[in-house]
Design a protein that fits this description.
The complex is a heterotrimer.
Chain A (H helix, E strand, L loop, with lengths): L32 E10 L4 E11 L2 E4 L4 E6 L7 E6 L5 E5 L5 H5 L3 E8 L8 E8 L1 E7 L4 E10 L2 E4 L4 E8 L2 E4 L6 E2 L5 E5 L13 E10 L3 E9 L25 H32 L1
Parallel strand pairs in A: 1-17
Antiparallel strand pairs in A: 1-2, 2-3, 2-6, 4-5, 4-7, 7-8, 9-10, 10-11, 10-15, 12-13, 12-14, 12-16, 16-17
Chain B lengths: L1 H13 L6 H27 L14 H13 L1 H11 L9 H22 L8 H4 L6 H34 L5 H11 L6 H34 L11 H28 L7 H32 L2 H11 L4 H20 L6 H27 L20 H24 L5 H12 L1
Helix pairs in contact in B: 1-16, 2-15, 3-5, 3-9, 3-10, 3-14, 4-5, 4-9, 4-10, 5-7, 5-15, 7-8, 7-9, 9-10, 10-11, 10-14, 11-13, 12-13, 13-14
Chain C lengths: L1 H13 L30 E5 L5 E5 L14 H6 L6 E6 L8 H9 L10 E5 L8 E5 L8 H5 L5 E3 L5 E3 L9 H5 L6 E2 L8 H4 L16 E2 L5 H5 L5 H5 L5 E5 L4 E3 L4 E3 H7 L15 E4 L12 H4 L5
Parallel strand pairs in C: 3-13
Antiparallel strand pairs in C: 1-2, 3-10, 4-5, 6-7, 8-9, 10-11, 11-12
Classes of the chains: A mainly beta, B mainly alpha, C alpha+beta.
Chain lengths: 290, 435, 308
């Protein structure tokens, strides 16, 4: 775990055994879950909470699917419920902040997200929480292919620049983002700003050469995960060509090469016409004998 | 007048006979083996191919080698009937029926054994509803079907005059059999028009069956040669397979000739001269096959490419050496040597040579399939220990033996209901020699 | 079944994050711009709370990631994702045969015990050359020999480069296994040992679940994960970053922690593909085992379990 990583793994209890009373066999020890709460906000729009549920099996953490949890904002009460969620196959469950919590949301610049699991047959009850402050991130570009990104946090009622926040500036890609130059991370200055030069010339974009830039703060102690995207026409124009519809030996049956079909079917036809003639011939002989 | 007496004698000699005691035991044994095979197949259907010893590396085992063996034997129908007929070889005519019966039995079991090898045989229909013309398996399906029909026709046409004789002489012996003869051949009246049509059809068949027979065996070799595997990746494969098929087919015919001759006392019809001639044919074919074997193994041996060296060494001096040299010696060299001598071409030695050829050929097919699969390009790794070698399980043996017994059963049954030597043709030839 | 309805409810209840800026929200922020162009508005609006504490309406189509898309149909699974060309880079200098990739893969695809889609092979080209560990997956060849020989279209090549298997179609002839020079394919010889709940699921070509008796299976590059923009299980499971995965059309591969420009990586580290001479044109590239992170011997201990 990185020191900056503010994921609280709350391990509630060590394993205990339910001593069997009269008529009860000894129940197996239940597993412990850890609920890691993460906060995300993309493009300064809608914040959401993602809880990752893990358990330790043979000394290794594994994610757990199908764990029902209730998420709360700031305090564990009915009025502050964010929602009920169940973890998916990756052991993750996600929820956004419902409009009903508008009042509670606006009471403070800092909020705590609580995740609570009531326990079931296999696992002990577990809780997790995370406190973050409201922040936003902005991105701008110049024609000279340089990028500036600024980070602001909410202080009282105004957005104030923040110094010393680490962020990444990258090109958005499948499964991971490609840094725009050799610098892996940038740190904001006193104006809350970083600047980066785009050094990924000729990287393929879409048909118009558009690529999506992304500036992101990852696993920040105070602000969680923030990202913002911007589309710029800095990539190479790229249109995918594929041989999917070509007639090849490895294409599907309806895309068999013409030459192959011609040869195969004409041979088949020739032979089977002869066979059909020979069968017909039997009937001809039969008629002669009748 | 003299002719008529002779005819009667020929007909009496050649009519299919009821099973004697030995025949009944023979059939019972074959049925028993088939039943064991059927039980083994039931187990395979129930538990899956896990009952075999095939695993991820050796994914094809004796089922496929047995399949190749059957396809090879079936080629004989075209050799004896078509090649001899087109070449005007008169002495071959008493052997044609035997050859055709063997061909039909073998092709039936070739198609059955390939279904046995399938992991999901219940989806067999996918081959027709989703067949891809790009796949050599589909070529094989098409060609096997075609060859089966063409073999049936080639069995059927020359039978027509004989059925008429059967109907005449077998009246009242067995009702159901009689009805069957009646159904398939009552219309044959030996009229000149019928004979003319039939002759023409047989000629067409003899011409058509040769390319089809070549195709079936070449396509079967392509199941291997279209892959990259060492030992299979060979442009020689089609010809190599055809040469081997001719040899094993002819071997099977001499074995059948000898057995039928003894069992049905056909010494007058299948004469020592036939064995003498077939012996010569076998020498030619064995040497041809040997030539292709040398061609197939000497050049890679000379080069010893890295990807092939383990495979080749395994055959020449490794795990498979015993089997390999056994197959070469008994399947080709010893029969050739024996048959080169005049005394070696007497019926018994020819019969023994035939058995050696057939047995050698069966193991040769096994050697074509398995050693290659045990020498993949990347090392065999991260798999259970049992994946590293192959010895067939009892189910595989039972099914394989069952299929061989089944083919013999079909031959036996066909020999029971049809004359194994064409009667009408023998009579005609008799008349020609008398005149 | 139950699980599926749960997750569906989960999705309906909570929805998910917003990818691009929603078109309907008033863009107070001038810097926001058109990453949303790629998504097409569905017309269905969802009310959400913004960071500014305001209620905004967002089109459902922009909710992302969408982990529970309706399952793709067989036809869609056979065509693949347009505009993508998946590629993998395996860095041999980083592999010490931990086999984490293998166990993650086996777990994710509910493989039979003893069955491995990923194999880590000890390689040594010649007596005096250096040994190294080589993980092999399906190569997802661009001219796949296995697909060429399949008689029933059970295995097929997609437009995004993946070679997948339809276990509902496969007849179990195993020709593809003989044709594959990389020995990538495995066969379900018996009834797979999987839970009845999983076995009862309808088969999906993209998840390759459930395995079925008498059919062939192999590495699928986790087609279901890549469809959702996630990395295959082996990539995320490897602690040493051996595997990098990406879209060739984006010229980028990533192992989760590091992201590389594919063409630079291959050029700088002299990447190559296995058995290039066979003409199969694999989608998996290897970086040679130079300047290694671990000695070869460090992987031997771990190898003993499976390979006596």
């Amino acid at each position: 775990m990185k020191p900056l990583n503010k994921i609280f793994y709350v391990i509630i209890a060590t394993a205990y055994l339910l001593a069997g009373g009269h008529g009860f066999a000894q129940a197996p020890a239940k597993g412990d879950l850890s609920l890691g709460v993460n906060y995300f906000i993309t493009n300064n729009q809608v914040p959401y909470v993602m809880v990752r549920v893990k358990t330790k099996v043979d000394g290794r953490f594994q994610t757990v699917a199908g764990i029902p949890m209730t998420l709360f904002l700031d305090k564990d009460s009915v009025g502050t419920t964010i929602g009920k969620v169940v973890t998916n196959e990756q052991g993750e469950a996600t929820a956004f902040i419902p409009p009903s919590l508008k009042k509670q949301w606006n009471t403070s610049v800092k909020h705590t997200f609580l995740a609570s699991f009531d326990g079931n047959k296999k696992y002990e009850p577990a809780k997790g929480d995370l406190t973050v402050g409201k922040a936003k991130i902005l991105i701008s570009t110049t024609d000279g292919k340089s990028i500036t990104a600024s980070v602001f946090e909410m202080k009282d009622t105004t957005w104030t620049p923040v110094k010393g926040v680490e962020l990444k500036i990258a090109v958005k890609r499948l499964g991971g983002d490609l840094p725009v130059n050799e610098t892996p991370t940038f740190t904001t200055d006193s104006t809350g700003t970083v600047a980066a030069d785009f050094k990924r010339d000729t990287i393929p974009g879409d048909a118009k050469g558009n690529i999506v830039l992304i500036a992101k703060i990852e696993d920040n102690d105070q602000y969680g995960n923030l990202s913002i995207e911007k589309t710029v026409p800095w990539g190479a124009k790229f249109t995918a060509v594929n041989k999917f519809n070509e007639r090849t030996l490895f294409a599907t049956r309806d895309k068999a090469p013409i030459w192959l079909q011609l040869i195969a079917y004409s041979i088949m036809l020739a032979v089977w016409i002869i066979l059909a003639y020979l069968v017909f011939n039997v009937f001809k002989i039969k008629r002669l004998g009748a | 007048m003299e002719n008529l007496v002779l005819d009667e004698k020929i007909i009496k000699d050649l009519l299919p006979q009821k099973f004697g005691k030995a025949g009944k035991i023979w059939v019972a044994v074959l049925v028993a083996i088939c039943l064991v095979g059927a039980y083994a197949y039931y187990r395979q259907l129930r538990y899956g191919l896990i009952v075999t010893s095939m695993r991820d590396y050796v994914s094809w085992g004796i089922y496929i080698s047995n399949f190749v063996f059957f396809v090879a034997i079936s080629l004989v129908g075209s050799l004896i009937t078509a090649v001899f007929r087109l070449a005007g070889v008169k002495w071959g005519s008493p052997l044609t029926r035997i050859a055709e019966i063997i061909a039909v039995a073998a092709i039936i079991f070739a198609s059955l054994i390939i279904i046995v090898d399938m992991g999901s045989p219940e989806r067999f229909y996918n081959l027709f509803t989703h067949g891809r013309i790009q796949s050599p398996i589909i070529w094989d399906v098409i060609v096997i079907t075609t060859y089966f029909f063409i073999s049936l026709l080639l069995l059927y046409y020359p039978l027509l005059p004989d059925i008429q004789i059967l109907l005449r002489f077998k009246a009242g012996t067995n009702k159901r059999l009689y009805a069957f003869y009646n159904f398939i051949g009552s219309f044959w009246k030996n009229t000149p028009e019928q004979i003319k049509l039939s002759e023409k059809a047989i000629n067409i068949l003899c011409i058509a069956i040769i390319p089809v027979a070549f195709t079936i065996h070449t396509v079967t070799s392509w199941l291997f040669a279209t892959t990259y595997r060492p030992g299979w990746d060979s442009t020689n494969f089609g010809a190599y397979f055809i040469a081997g098929a001719f040899l094993v087919g002819a071997g099977a015919v001499v074995v059948a000739m000898y057995v039928f001759r003894k069992a049905y006392h056909l010494e007058k019809y299948i004469t020592e001269n036939h064995f003498e001639k077939m012996g010569r044919v076998l020498v030619l074919l064995a040497m041809l096959y040997l030539y292709f074997n040398i061609n197939e193994f000497l050049t890679p041996f000379f080069k010893m490419k890295e990807s092939e060296s383990a495979y080749l060494n395994g055959l020449f001096s490794g795990d498979f050496a015993l089997l390999f040299w056994f197959a070469i010696l008994t399947g080709m060299i010893i029969p050739t040597v024996v048959l080169l001598f005049k005394k070696g071409r007497k019926p018994l030695p020819v019969f023994i040579a035939g058995i050696m050829i057939v047995v050698g050929a069966w193991f040769k097919r096994y050697l074509i399939v398995t050693p290659t699969l045990l020498h993949p390009f990347l090392p065999m790794h991260d798999v259970p220990e049992s994946y590293h070698h192959y010895f067939p399980s009892w189910e595989e043996w039972a099914i394989t033996m069952g299929s061989l017994a089944g083919a013999l059963l079909i031959i036996t049954i066909l020999a029971r209901i049809f004359p194994i030597i064409p009667i009408q043709e023998t009579i005609t030839e008799q008349h020609e020699t008398v005149e | 079944m139950n699980q599926e309805t749960n997750s569906r409810r989960d999705f309906l209840l909570t929805g998910l994050l917003i990818a691009g800026a929603a078109t309907s929200c008033t863009p107070k922020d001038p810097f926001e711009s058109g990453a949303e162009e790629q998504a097409v508005a569905s017309g269905k609006k969802v009310k959400l709370l913004s960071v500014d504490g305001e209620i905004i309406e967002v089109d459902e189509a922009f909710l992302k990631p969408v982990p529970h898309l309706p399952p793709v149909t067989n036809t869609e699974a056979r065509i693949g994702i347009p505009g993508k060309k998946f590629v993998m880079v395996i860095d041999l200098s980083r592999c010490k045969n931990l086999k984490k990739c293998q166990s993650a893969c086996n777990h994710a695809h509910e493989l039979n015990p003893g069955e491995n889609w990923i194999k880590v092979e000890p390689m040594q080209e010649a007596e005096h050359t250096a040994p190294y560990w080589e993980p092999t997956t399906c190569m997802h060849c661009d001219e796949p020999p296995c697909v060429k020989v399949c008689p029933v279209d059970a295995t097929f090549k997609r437009q995004d480069g993946l070679v997948l298997i339809d276990s509902d179609r496969c007849i179990g002839c195993r020709f593809c296994m003989a044709a594959c020079p990389y020995s990538a394919r495995v066969f379900n010889w018996g009834e797979p040992e999987i839970s009845p709940a999983i076995a009862a699921q309808p088969y999906s070509c993209e998840t390759s679940i459930p395995q079925k008796k008498g059919t062939v299976s192999k590495c699928d590059f986790c087609a279901d994960m890549t469809r959702e923009g996630m990395l295959p299980h082996c990539v995320s499971a490897c602690p040493n970053g051996v595997f990098a995965f990406g879209d060739m059309n984006e010229d980028t591969v990533t192992n989760g922690a590091e992201t590389f420009r594919f063409s630079d990586l291959i050029r700088d580290k002299a990447g190559y593909r296995l058995m290039e001479d066979l003409g199969t044109k694999p989608s998996v590239y290897y970086l040679p085992p130079v300047a290694r992170n671990f000695p070869f011997e460090s992987g031997l201990e771990n190898d003993k379990l499976q390979n006596k």
